[in-house]
Amino acid sequence: MPADRLPTGIASVDRLLGGGLETDAVTELYGEGGSGKTLFCLDVAARTARASRWVLYVDTEGVSLERLRAIAGPDLDRLLGHLLVSAPHDLAEQGRAVATACALTRGGRRDVGLVVLDSATNFYRLALSGPDEDDAREALVLQVADLVATARRRGVAVLLTNQVWRNPKDGALEPLGGSFLNHAAKTILRFDRRTGPVRRVVLVKHRARPEGTAEFRITAGGLESVGPG
Ligand code: GTP
Ligand code: MG
Q: Among 32, 76, 104, 177, which is 20 to 30 Å from 130 by CA?
């Protein structure tokens, strides 16, 4: 595995990504509700913290401690010792949480392996089509720019999730956040629901890998690779 990758621990996804998440760039996950974006973030966060590397987790949805407990098993205490969760309630608080995560990462005191922003567009979405839309877009652009710069400077994987809207022209599900977000993220993965607990991951964009797909299964104890290996 290249040194510049953070393994997700899900073999099919790591194969798709050439070893794992890039550690000097932002990876964006988008997909409809229930497609597994949050569970994926929690899974990678747990794996990273279990390896005694810090995870800075900005959670706009209310992370399920129950899920984290199930994924962590007996390692919960060790894992919580390397996990810093902030739970903003609006876009301004989200901005402060992202700034703090970036400052802690750049400060270099902790060995930060992963920064998560789940979801980047939860509060932004609420401002769309309202009087604050331009301000909200600008705030989001600044947050993502900070994350991009931090990833690049400190060699840290950044994972952000994005919600979708249905384009009335062709009915396709498209990521929110405009073209800025899609340029800022060097890797983009789309999560699709399949039958039952299986989810498909589509590699939409990557600097060094061909397009492709992978599958995982949601289980009580975390995400499991589907397919060979
Ligand atoms: P949004 O935040 O709404 O955009 O969704 P998301 O993409 O973040 O989805 P999330 O990661 O929260 O996935 C939740 C999905 O996992 C739901 O479809 C749940 O039914 C499913 N799920 C949660 N726990 C389990 C479990 O223990 N077993 C199985 N099979 N499915 C589960
Ligand atoms: Mg979610």
A: 32
The angle at the Cα of 11, spanning 76 to 218, to the nearest 5 degrees, equals: 60
> Residue 198: CB within 6 Å of ligand 1?
no
Confidence bin at 66 (pLDDT 50/70/90): confident
Judge if the beta carbon of residue 222 lies within 6 A of ligand 1: no
Domains of the chain and any CATH numbers = 5-226 (3.40.50.300)
Higher pLDDT residue, 187 or 63? Answer: 187
Q: What separation in Å is there between the alpha carbon of 78 and the centre of ligand 2?
A: 24
- Burial letters 54-77, b for 16+ CB under 10 A, else e: bbbbbbbeebeeebbebbbeeebe
Q: In this structure, which residues have their CB less than 5 angstroms from ion ligand 2? A: 37-38
